[in-house]
Amino acid sequence: MALNKNKDLKLYYSISEVALQLNVSETLLRFWEKEFPNIHPKKAGRGIRQYTKDDIEQIRLVYHLVKERGMTLQGARDMIKRDKNGTVNRNIEVIDRLKAIRTELQNIGKDLGGLI
């Protein structure tokens, strides 16, 4: 769920880019926008959504709470409200780094398996 290094230079991302990055549907992003006040992308002409990196981080937070931890929408809203110091966001970053390390170690293991 990390942003592509080449795309980090962009200021705004389209809804289709965000959906692809997070492997969710555009419909789900629009639904979460209505359900979570912390998700509020800028809307350009004709209502086209423009997401910033901060918007994407808020969506990642909701994704983690709802999809990965299995919380209800109300439970996720309550946790976000209580999380004044950003602890949950930092935890998500650590989890993402650990997943990347696990993937790298698995790849190394596969490479070594071919040598043994």
Written description of the protein model:
The protein is mostly helical. The chain has a domain at about 5-85: Multidrug-efflux Transporter Regulator, Chain: A, Domain 2. It has 5 helices and 2 strands; from the N terminus they run ααββααα. A two-stranded antiparallel ribbon has the order 1-2. α3 packs across α4.
Quick structural summary:
This protein has 116 residues and is mostly helical. It is 63% helix and 3% strand. It has a domain at 5-85: Multidrug-efflux Transporter Regulator, Chain: A, Domain 2.
**Relative strand content:** under 5%
Number of β-strand runs: 2
Low-confidence spans: none
User: Helix-strand pattern, N to C?
Assistant: HHEEHHH
CATH architecture of the domain at 5-85: Orthogonal Bundle
How far is it from the N-terminal to the C-terminal residue, by CA?
33 Å
Name a few traits of the molecule:
116 residues, mainly alpha, Multidrug-efflux Transporter Regulator, Chain: A, Domain 2, two-stranded antiparallel ribbon, 5 helices, 2 strands, 63% helix, 3% strand, globular
Helix-strand layout with pairing:
Elements: H1 15-22, H2 26-35, E1 42-43, E2 49-50, H3 53-68, H4 73-82, H5 87-115
Antiparallel strand pairs: 1-2
